[in-house]
Specification:
Elements (H helix, E strand, L loop, with lengths): L9 H4 L5 E6 L6 H8 L5 E2 L22 H16 L12 H8 L6 H15 L4 E4 L8 H7 L4 E6 L2 H8 L9 H21 L4 E5 H6 L1 H12 L14 H9 L18 H4 L2 H18 L13 H25 L1 H25 L23
Helix pairs in contact: 3-4, 3-5, 7-8, 8-13, 14-15
Length: 377
């Protein structure tokens, strides 16, 4: 397969850092299929996502980020999260000291840390556009836009019934249709906020249109991002990353093959009629907006008791899923467990530090030369 020359986008040619892009709003929408194809362009780079949403509940435990000690801990922990990611960023090593010294005098937030890592990874690939595929970060779009006002958003919509059916089988989500339908609704409401506030920064595409019209959809995305469409994007089998991902986890097993349009209605065999009714009750407004034909009256009564029962079923399902994963795919199990254990260790350590008597003191660390810590090999 021939590789196109590394032509920078206009954004990069003008001497700026790569333009930041977020894919939104929820995983299991076909996002990897799009990311892997776009990554075949030398103008574009999107590494395996950090899914920083899993670290967000711990952010208050860091305390006042004006305290250099707190912010340095955060920088170090985010880099640690990247290091325990299931899929490594090729050729990328970050030094917490150098990263901290580089951004210490800029507005402080966990998003600034994450984007520093992403932008650097993109710069090493000579890309003009860098995308974060941590779709759940749609819930923090306001903070992201405050940092990067030129950010773009690729909003990927999928039939909620098909997406919930996929989520039900993924260890990263709940194991109940009602809970996952609620998650779907919350994510798309957050996407609506982005679409309403920054309409010219958002491209909305349907995953089903990508399945039926791959080239048309990819060309549309490329124009929006300001990168060239390349014919090799249509041959994902040529992507080494796609081949690697397909072997790591059952969740990604189809990523090295062309999309199968016949799977659009697969949810009809995976979900019961009451499940479909509950999903359509919650998401009917969006189904109508995006052209998905309803199959039920959408009149399910969703009570607190039903939600409580759903939570119990999901928790039991999660325990079974971890046991099954250990037996069925030990590599996948260990890699996911390593990340989960890292987050649990962070929670324990930060909780203990939050009770420290000197926590409310603002400390400024001596400034160092970041160039002295930069990794160059």
């Amino acid at each position: 397969m021939t590789t196109a020359p590394k032509t920078p986008s206009l954004h990069a040619a003008q001497g700026a850092r790569p333009r930041p892009v977020m894919m939104i709003p929820l995983r299991r929408c076909g996002s990897h299929a799009l990311r892997l194809r776009l990554n075949m362009s030398p103008q574009f780079y999107s590494p395996y996502p950090l899914h920083i949403v899993d670290l967000m509940p711990l952010v208050p435990l860091y305390g006042d980020l004006r305290d250099d000690r707190s912010y340095f801990r955060m920088v170090t922990d985010v880099i640690g999260l990247q290091a325990v990611s299931m899929v490594k960023w090729p050729g990328t090593v970050f030094d917490p000291v150098e990263i901290f010294e580089t951004i210490r005098n800029e507005p402080r937030s966990i998003h600034r840390v994450v984007w520093e890592l992403l932008l650097r990874a993109g710069e090493r690939q000579h890309a003009g556009v860098v995308m974060d595929k941590s779709l759940d970060s749609v819930h923090y779009a306001d903070q992201q836009m405050a940092l990067y006002p030129d950010m773009l958003f690729v909003n990927v919509v999928r039939d909620p019934r098909a997406q919930v059916a996929s989520m039900n089988r993924a260890i990263i989500h709940d194991f109940d249709s009602l809970l996952n339908a609620q998650t779907w609704l919350a994510a798309h409401r957050a996407a609506d906020h982005v679409r309403t506030r920054w309409p010219d920064r958002v491209l909305t595409i349907r995953y089903e249109d990508f399945l039926s019209q791959q080239e048309v959809t990819l060309r549309q995305v490329c124009v929006f991002l300001g990168i060239d469409f390349l014919p090799q994007m249509l041959d994902v089998a040529g992507s080494q990353e796609a081949r690697q991902l397909s072997q790591l986890s059952a969740l990604w097993s189809s990523n090295c093959y062309p999309p199968i349009a016949a799977n659009i209605d697969k949810f009809k065999q995976q979900l019961t009629t009451p499940e479909i009714n509950a999903i359509e009750t919650l998401t009917g407004e969006y189904m109508d907006r995006y052209g998905y034909t309803r199959l039920t009256a959408g009149d399910a009564e969703i009570t607190p008791e039903l939600k409580a029962q759903a939570r119990l079923r999901s928790d039991e399902g999660r325990e079974r899923a971890w046991r099954d994963l250990e037996l069925d795919n030990f590599r996948d199990y260990v890699l996911r467990r390593c990340r989960a254990d890292y987050l649990a260790q962070l929670a324990a350590r930060l909780t203990q530090q939050a009770a420290h008597p000197g926590r409310n003191t603002i400390v400024t660390l001596d400034e160092l030369d970041p160039a002295a810590f930069e990794v160059t090999d």
